[in-house]
Design brief:
Blueprint lengths: L2 H21 L2 H16 L4 E5 L2 H14 L13 E3 L4 H11 L6 H7 L5 E5 L6 H13 L2 E7 L11 E5 L4 H25 L1
Parallel strand pairs: 1-2, 1-3, 3-4, 4-5
Helix pairs in contact: 1-7, 2-7, 3-7, 5-6
Length: 194
């Protein structure tokens, strides 16, 4: 396969995953928008977490709400917190409670019933991710999972499990950020209409 053929194949895979999100996953995408709209209209917050590249996506999406998603849309800042942003809390939590609780511990202090947690993972198996979803469930926090493969153990803990049908990290991450942007843009459209 030539480099040109390889590049074309890579782009076709991305297009196919985006089509899948737009068609097969549309009801779940709208469910996510509903959860977020209810939370924000009720004075609640949105939380985001993930490991590695998914941690960067968590920060990215939280910032889109906290600061700005689209430059042409002027609107208030909305409460969104990436649980990956505070190195002191992450390292203290890892040291004092173990790495598997680095998201669950701060969520238990900052979260309340009616909030929503976005968990982002390509495998659905990360222990710290699973613990955060369990804490969210116990507290009455809605759960949205950006997952890959078959969703792993996380799928059963998510009110809206958005499972990208791939086992390859790169296309899963690309689909996750596409899903995230779509959800936030639809959410923004709803919230600024009223």
């Amino acid at each position: 396969m030539t480099e040109q053929e390889r590049l074309s194949a890579m782009m076709e895979d991305v297009i196919a995953l985006r089509r899948h999100v737009a068609t097969e996953m549309a009801p779940l995408v709208f469910r996510c928008v509903d959860l977020c709209e209810t939370a924000l209209r009720g004075g609640c917050k949105l939380f985001f977490c993930g490991n590695g590249g998914s941690a960067a996506d968590a920060q990215h999406l939280a910032t889109e709400l906290l600061v700005r998603l689209r430059s042409r849309v002027e609107r208030p800042s909305w409460p969104a917190i990436a649980l990956t942003l505070d190195p002191a809390a992450l390292t203290a939590g890892g040291n004092d409670y173990g790495f598997e609780k680095v998201f669950a511990r701060p969520l238990s202090g900052l979260g309340r019933a009616g909030d929503v947690l976005f968990g982002i993972t390509t495998s659905g198996r990360s222990a710290n991710f699973i613990k955060a979803l369990q804490v969210a469930r116990d507290m009455g926090i809605g759960t949205i999972g950006f997952l890959g493969g078959h969703g792993g153990a996380a799928a059963a803990l998510c009110d809206a499990p958005l499972i990208v049908p791939s086992v390859e990290t790169v296309p899963i991450q690309e689909a996750h950020i596409t899903q995230g942007h779509a959800i936030l843009e639809l959410l923004e459209d709803r919230l600024i209409r009223t």
